[in-house]
Amino acid sequence: MNMSTVDLYGQDGVNVPLGDKFSRYAGELCRQTYRNCPHLEIVDCSNGLFRGPRFFRPKDMPEETGFHIAPDGIGTKSIITDAANLHQLSAYDWVAMCGGDVTRYGGWPVLFCNDLNVSSLGEDENSKTYHAVLCLMQGLQMLANEYGYVMYNGETAEMGPCVSSENPFATLKYIWAGVAFGFFHPNNVITGERVRLGQHIIALREKGLRSNGGSSVRKAFKLRFGDEWFQNRDAMQYIIDAAKPSVIYDPFLAAMNGWPGTEPVVRASLIVHLTGGSFRGKFFDDFLKRHGFSAVLDDLFPPPEIMQLCGEWRGFDSAGFYDTFHGGQGALVVVEPKDSAHFIARAEKAGIEAKVCGKIMGRDARPELYIKSKYKPGEDVSIS
């Protein structure tokens, strides 16, 4: 046999024909979402080629509307999601992470591009691995259709040993991230400059882990169920609970921010996207400490049961717990007291649990964030 006819690249772990087949499939799923957002025009110049060019532009939007770009990913939650065999729900995690970094500044996420790196796409199109990667894209299209998002395009790469897992039996070893493109307008931008003494802090409930703290969750599983927790039958229901997809708050928050126009329904003074470490990082360090405010969070939602258990198995005290996890709320929204009831009613109409969980206390020489622990009642947290 002539050496030039031997598929050496395939022997080295990269299945080009299967990769092209997957890309064509994913590209067609993308095209089916191009009309999801009536205020976004997708101009497809590809002539049916899945690698072909396309571009997008705003349509029927207020003057001065621009775009913001927010990248993020699901971190190590992919290991947990794979162990739970819930690949079709994985897109909710990175879309929630990216979208939350648009709406917290007053924007409206409308278009998403994904970057999927896998160890392997599988041996062939009949393999469990290839089926799992198809489920990722099917789930992404399902989410896009549900919330009116556009799946614009993406990139997939077989990375071999560069993408690994502590689970040697993983069906799909993958790293999934993406970028959200969101509309922005100067009249809608939220910077925290409107925060005032006595304003209410509203929590939006999250009953899963979202996509943060995954490393501590896996360590907790290892401590509770052993090194091969991913194969322990006693751990399976807990793994499924840990893989629960993130709540998508962004269509609701975008509507409250006034989109597709420029006049907010309720003008938020601050929105905090609570990811790992965000009570301290995004709320205290980035805002309270910087502007000299103190705040009290004395009526948070309780942690989801799986988060509570993982915190206990891992050995967290309340300070470590709230430095690692969101504790049961995926976002905090600061509003005027007169607007609280209306905001909460609109959230509940959108299927999102919300309540006043605290307030802005004022400006202090030594700013402080006080958290009344719902993880270990009586063991409260002070961040200063």
Task: Characterise this structure.
It is a single chain. The chain is of the alpha+beta class and 384 residues long. The chain has one domain: PurM-like C-terminal domain (Phosphoribosyl-aminoimidazole Synthetase, Chain A, domain 2), CATH 3.90.650.10. It has helices at 8-11, 16-31, 77-84, 91-103, 128-147, 214-225, 236-242, 250-256, 279-291, 305-314, 318-324, 340-349, and strands at 40-44, 54-58, 66-73, 108-118, 150-158, 174-184, 200-205, 270-273, 293-297, 329-335, 354-363, 369-371, 381-383.
Determine the strand fraction and express it as a percent band. 15-25%
CATH topology: Phosphoribosyl-aminoimidazole Synthetase, Chain A, domain 2
Looking at how many chains there are and whether they match, the oligomeric state comes to single chain
Total individual domains: 1
What are the key terms here?
flat, alpha+beta, single chain, Phosphoribosyl-aminoimidazole Synthetase, Chain A, domain 2, 384 residues, 23% strand, 13 strands, four-stranded mixed β-sheet
Task: Please describe the topology of this protein.
Elements: H1 8-11, H2 16-31, E1 40-44, E2 54-58, E3 66-73, H3 77-84, H4 91-103, E4 108-118, H5 128-147, E5 150-158, E6 174-184, E7 200-205, H6 214-225, H7 236-242, H8 250-256, E8 270-273, H9 279-291, E9 293-297, H10 305-314, H11 318-324, E10 329-335, H12 340-349, E11 354-363, E12 369-371, E13 381-383
Parallel strand pairs: 4-5, 9-12
Antiparallel strand pairs: 1-2, 3-6, 4-6, 7-10, 7-11, 8-10, 9-11, 12-13
